[in-house]
Design brief:
Number of helices of chain B: 10
Number of strands of chain A: 5
CATH topology of chain A: Rossmann fold
Oligomer: heterodimer
Subcellular location (chain B): Cell membrane
Membrane topology (chain B): Multi-pass membrane protein
CATH superfamily of chain A: P-loop containing nucleotide triphosphate hydrolases
Largest sheet of chain B: none
Shape of chain A: globular
Main location (chain B): membrane
Protein name (chain B): ABC3 transporter permease C-terminal domain-containing protein
Distance between the termini of chain B: 29 Å
Radius of gyration of chain B: 25 Å
Strand content of chain A: 5-15%
Radius of gyration of chain A: 19 Å
Structural class of chain A: alpha/beta
Keywords (chain B): Cell membrane, Membrane, Transmembrane, Transmembrane helix
Chain lengths: 208, 253
């Protein structure tokens, strides 16, 4: 289908209504596969190309690698020149501000570290005035120190910039540690029906 | 200017793609230049034949008609032949380009996803991709244009030789034997009253300066046509691809 009618708008409103506080939300996904599927599901349902500039939702993914390798970090963050002056200082919430770090900004996309890739996606979304950021399970498998540090950063961002952040995680401790802003079941998520298993395969298994 | 910077960066990164477009451009430009020059040369010879018939002494007209009739026929046949060839060539080039783009777009699926996640529309993606292909084509065109102007003299004489060979071959095919042909020519030019001889009657003046100036206009015509096609084809195919992949963000890609 090339010309699908728009259906996302009411879903978008429900979604925004659920995550209406400028805070950090956690969604528990049992495994990596579910996390990926959830992220994709949200993107499919919420991505609306008609409202690109005023789109309230942004997506940040560690898994999908959303940085163009042949552009510098600067060009990956600022798509248009006009954004630069307007936003240079606006998102400075810490002594270290990636947006004024020349070394980081001039690094080519293919040479960026994991953390720097995250910054690129984060600031790209902030500059596009996205108010609700959905992140995949990008903290899973990281060290405790890194997780703690990242969570502090996320919280500072939500408080000082007034954005809402939604983090998918397979880490039960994060969910248990933040019961007020955590979802143990995935909101709105309807997994795709699994394809029927091959009956011959099943028979084989049964006979083994 | 972000748009151009991105296009240049992408082309430097995707070198095979850029090289493919450059090769295609050279093939397209040289093919259309060759065939269209042939048409121009044939048309010139045909016109010349008509006007020169009346410059011949009246007593030779009887022989001349025997000679010129088949020659006109051959010129007309060749013009048709070249025109058909030109259309066919352009059609094949267009198909090859579309195929190349289709294969290539698949390998750049991931980039499209990045643009989409950055909030860019299908139209933006189409524009960006069009910028890349068009920029490559324009650079290839400029290079080809300068090269053609630089070697226009030898290029023209090469084309004229090919043209003459093709003409003689076609003439042989309509059952005018070479000896018969030469006999007729001799009889026509026995009087030697014309400002041209047998050879120039057949192929016109060897070095007509007018013909050099056909190259830029022919190149501009077909270059413009090629550019328009490339722009339209790449914009549409990228837009379409982006539209189709809009709802699939699988990890592979």
């Amino acid at each position: 289908m090339l010309f699908k009618p728009k259906q996302a708008s009411s879903f978008m409103l429900e979604f925004q209504h659920l995550f209406d506080q400028a805070t950090l939300y956690f969604i528990y996904t049992p495994d990596q596969e579910t996390a990926t599927a959830t992220f994709q599901y949200y993107f499919d349902r919420l991505h609306d190309e008609q409202n690109k500039t005023t789109h309230p939702l942004g997506f940040i993914s560690q898994e999908l690698d959303l940085v163009l390798p042949y552009l510098s970090a600067r060009d990956n963050i600022f798509w248009e020149d006009s954004f630069k002056n307007e936003h240079q200082q606006k998102f400075r919430i810490r002594p270290y501000d990636p947006l004024t770090d020349e070394r980081f900004l001039s690094t080519m996309g293919r040479d960026l570290t994991r953390q720097q890739r995250f910054y690129v996606q984060l600031y790209r979304n902030l500059i596009a005035r996205r108010k609700l950021l959905i992140m995949d399970n990008l903290l899973d498998g990281e060290s405790v120190a890194h997780i703690r540090e990242s969570l502090t950063l996320f919280r500072e961002m939500t408080q000082q910039l007034g954005v809402t952040m939604v983090l998918l995680t397979t880490n039960r401790e994060l969910i248990d540690g933040n019961p007020a802003t955590s979802f143990r079941t995935i909101p709105f998520y309807q997994p795709k029906p699994k394809p029927l298993t091959n009956p011959i395969g099943t028979l084989k298994k049964a006979s083994e | 200017m972000r748009f151009l910077e991105r296009a240049v960066a992408s082309l430097l990164y995707h070198r095979k793609f850029a090289l493919g477009i450059v090769l295609w451009s050279f093939l397209f430009l040289s093919g259309t230049l060759y065939l269209s020059t042939m048409i121009v040369l044939e048309r010139q010879s045909l016109n010349q034949l008509d006007s020169r018939f009346y410059q011949l002494p009246t007593q030779t007209h009887q022989h001349a008609v025997q000679l010129l009739g088949p020659m006109q026929k051959v010129h007309r046949q060749l013009i048709q032949h070249y025109e058909f060839g030109l259309l066919l060539f352009i059609g094949i080039c267009a198909l090859v380009f579309l195929l190349f783009i289709a294969i290539y777009l698949r390998s750049r699926r991931k980039e499209f996803r990045i643009y989409r996640f950055a909030g860019k529309s299908n139209a933006f993606i189409g524009r960006q991709f069009m910028g890349e292909t068009l920029l490559t084509f324009v650079l290839a065109f400029i290079f080809f244009f300068l090269l053609t102007l630089l070697f226009s003299k030898s290029l023209l004489s090469m084309f004229q030789n090919l043209n003459q060979q093709a003409f003689m071959q076609a003439l042989n095919q309509i059952n005018i034997s070479r000896t018969n042909f030469n006999r007729l020519l001799r009889e026509i030019f026995q009087a030697r009253l014309t400002p041209f001889n047998g050879n120039t009657l057949l192929f016109g003046p060897g070095q007509d300066p007018d013909q050099f100036f056909q190259f830029p206009s022919l190149l501009a015509t077909y270059g413009g046509l090629g550019g328009l096609f490339i722009a339209a084809a790449s914009w549409c195919s990228a837009w379409l691809a982006s539209r189709i992949w809009q709802h699939s963000i699988q990890k592979r890609g």
